[in-house]
Amino acid sequence: MGLFDMFQKHKHSIGAVHKNSFKQSVNTFIPSIPQDVQNLLWFSDGENKNIDKSSEEPSAISYKLPLSTNVPEKLGYWPNYTRMSPSQRYSYLEWLTNIDSSTDMGNVFTFFYGLERYIKTSKYNQAIQMIERLKKYHNTNNSFNYYSNVALVYAAMLYKEPKFLHNITPGSSSSLLLIAKGALNGGLNAPEIMNAAKDFNWENTRYIKNNPDVFQKNLENLMKKLYSKDYYPIPQNITDVPMTDICLANISLSSQTITGLATRVPGPLVFSIPDFSKSRNIMTDIYYLLKESHDLTKKSLKIMRKNGNITPKKQIEPTNSRRINPNTGHPMSTDKSIQTAKEMYESTLNIKHDYSIYNDPKIIHDDKVLNRVLPHYFLGDLFYKQGEWDRAEKEWLSIVKLMSEKAATKLAIMYHKENRFKDEISIIKDGIQYGTNNTVYSLSGKLDVRLSKATTSFDRNVTRDKSKGYTLQ
């Protein structure tokens, strides 16, 4: 599963593959696919068959399906080799000859799904290394960063191996990292806490950004003083946290068996563990660590400046470089940001879904919800970055009941910038209401924090409030 930024395809030489051949086949590509990649592919038929068709493995390659050298259409989310067009299959096989090259992210996800299946086999070490390689060369896609992080967490849980967590994308998925380290009786080190500062409701990251070495030293010294360790040991006696499931993105693994000729490693397909990221005690502890380290860093820098150990930074005159939409008066993002938003929106369009391949009613339900909300969510994001805030509001309001916290957060941020403080409070409450029993977009707890801040803003700015109300669809 994923929402893909589409990268322009790079043409490259691939040895034995000739685009002008009259008839293309899988055998045309096999000699050019590196052996370490070949060893982690799944084949549903032919001489390399290593999995049954009944497994519904989305990455399984079939020798029987046609290929075409025509320009491929963009792949959507949940790509599947069998359901690809001939030109899309050709593009995927061609990319396998050089998986480090830029490509449609659908190709990366297709290969990734197969690697997830290998995590449950004796080849799990090779699969993890390959996932880490994909993360290195395809790390600009937020969706892939998230799902590959989940796969690493899953592997760490399955094999009780914390080293698999080392390649969690820095600054992202801090809640996943916290969950995994808590379950493995681990702790969070200073860089991990600093990267995730905002997830622990610490907003003043000035010293973390500008003086990271000083901040880290103070944070480590503080933890040594409090815990006799240079990291935060996640407490194991916490009982007031909800359980959460850690599972792989490959939906064909939702069944209770994994079919294939590779040696299977026993273990659960889903881990149900305490969600330590929702512990008030842990949030309070780490917030305290960040606040104290901030104050200590402030004092340290003052002493260093007094002793001449720090050269004062030259003040840069501010420039009025913010772009404004002349038709609406609202600020606009950069051209690059707008283009990325446009590609994200386009990736959700014209995607055909064959629900007959799914056996799980929940997967079908979740898929239909995603198909309904994602085009509106990303179109709203595109309008917002173009300075078309009224149009963005309309798109996001249409999905609050289904997307709860995600859509409500977008609207709350926009309402705050428009001085619509009362509307900001109302939309946050709506997000909480519709997220309470939402099985697709559940609440993270961040809206409660945002509601407290929004209430304070309203109390301080009653006379400036420009709320005009809204209507959910």
UniProtKB/TrEMBL annotation:
It comes from Companilactobacillus suantsaicola. It comes from the Bacteria. This is TerB N-terminal domain-containing protein. InterPro entries: TerB_N (IPR025266), TPR-like_helical_dom_sf (IPR011990). Residues 311-336 are annotated as: Disordered. Gene3D superfamilies: Tetratricopeptide repeat domain. Residues 57-148 form the TerB N-terminal domain.
